[in-house]
Every structure is written in C-alpha cells, then in structure tokens.
# Entry
Amino acid sequence: MIQRADTYVTDTAGRHRGRFAPSPTGPLHLGSLVAAFGSWLMARRAGGEWWVRIEDLDPPREVAGAADAQLRTLSAFGLVSDAPVVRQSDRHALYDAALARLLDAGFAFACHCSRSDLVAAGGIHRSCRPGALRETPAIRLRVPDDTRIAFDDALHGRIEQDVAREVGDVVLRRADGYWAYQLAVVVDDADQGITDVVRGADLLDSTPRQILLQRALGLPTPRYAHLPLIVDGSGRKLSKSLAALPIDADDPLPTLRLAWCALHQNPRVLHGIESVDRLLARAITDFQPEQIGSAATTVAALHNCAATQPA
# Structure
C-alpha cells in the first residue's frame, strides 16, 4: 500500500529552484503575475534559479497563441526563465512511465464511474459502482482509508488533510484521455529538480494529494509556500477576466507595484523607480518573505497600497 506518515522530509541541500507554471487559457492576469513575481522573488532572494513551464495538457480549454503571449508578457516584466521553457505537451512519455509504475505496483486502478455516479458522494470516489463500464475508463490513485497528509507551508503553517475522506481516489488520467494536473505537476517538479513550489493559495488544497502521489512514486517532496489571493470586496477570488485589473505589458511598472503590494511588501521602497530592471533589483534587496503572511488582499487595499507616497 502507499506509505503514510505524519510529516514529509525533503533534502534539498540548501539549493533553491523555483518555477512558474501557467496554463495557456488566456493572457496573464494580475493573480498570475503575483504568483510569478512572488516565486521569482523567493528564488532570487535565496540566490537560486527560477524556471518557467507551460502546463498545456487540456486542449479544450487552451487558447491558440496564449502560451507565447504569456512568455512575452513575462519578458516585458523582466521575469525570464533561467532554463529553456518546457511544455507539458512534449512530456507525455514521462507521464506514461509514471502511470505504468503506479499500475504495476497496484497503487492505481481503472475507474469506469462517471461524474453522475459520484454526485451522491459529493464527487468523492471511494469505490467503483458495480457494473459501471466505459469505453475509456479514467485511471485513479488508490487512496487507502484514513490517509492523512500533513505538511508545513512556509506562509500558512501546519496543514493537515484526510485525503481519503476529503478528496477520495485521485484522478491521474481522465476518461477523455487527457492527463490530470495532479500527476503531471508531480512528475514535472521531480524531473526538473524543483525544490520550492511557490504558487497561489487556491492550490493549497491540492498539495496533500500531490505529496501522497510523490510518496507512491518514490519522488522527493519540495518545500511549499502558497501566496495570498487577491479578492473583491465580498471576499471572492478575482477572475482573470476582471476588466478593472488588466496587465499592460507596454507599461509594466504600475502592475509590478500592485503585485509587490499583493505580497504585503512596503510600497515606499519602489516609489520613483522608473525602470523595470532597477525596480526588480531594488525588489530583491528589500523583499521580506516573512511579511507576506497568509491573509488575502482586497482590490481596494491593493490600489491604496500602490498609491502610498514615501514619508
């Protein structure tokens, strides 16, 4: 069975290799830029590397040309990968090999259940419906009962989840044949030697199942830091289509200052800097990771922060 433990252990020998992994479903939005900027700052402050990976494994949701547009936007903001950019669509062989290992070890199984079969259980799969048969079944990770995963997030502290009860058997390959995010991200992070995953807090809930999958595959577990979200006045996460918060690649400085504020940094230190290179250099020098915390930031607070003048 899958090995379970109360904590995870990772040996990164003081190295730091972070990454930003956008999905090409449209142009980058402010939340994406905050994740990119935050992960870049974490890497640079640690004297480490920062890589970019395009997560293009869901063709029905992808927008033609979006990946290249995202890379151009990142470049305009001075956020350039330290290694050649890889695309998940070129890495199917890695996912095939990982899935074969899980199937051979009995850690994964074919599931013929449809979404409608799981409605009564709140979408949580614990056993297959008798007699269910699909032409192309999904493949799931077998999650034993009482599988609890605990880890320490750099910003949110101790996180614990009963994966069996709260998530159920995790999809690894969907019934439509596409790879699930959970398998691909685990395989890619290990293959690329990622030591530090810095991303938005909307993915905090996914981390325990990824750690469980890492253990099943015998892969190392990176350090995690989940950045605070940007929310509206009602506490709802902003969508990338929100017209009030566009990203203008032709004028990156205002958005970089907003992203700096979203990371709960002192806005005064970037005041008056009128070059992307100089702003990023100053940001590295004055970045205080311990100030980020876990609290979300409202749009109004962001704009008030960015407008703050030096004393």
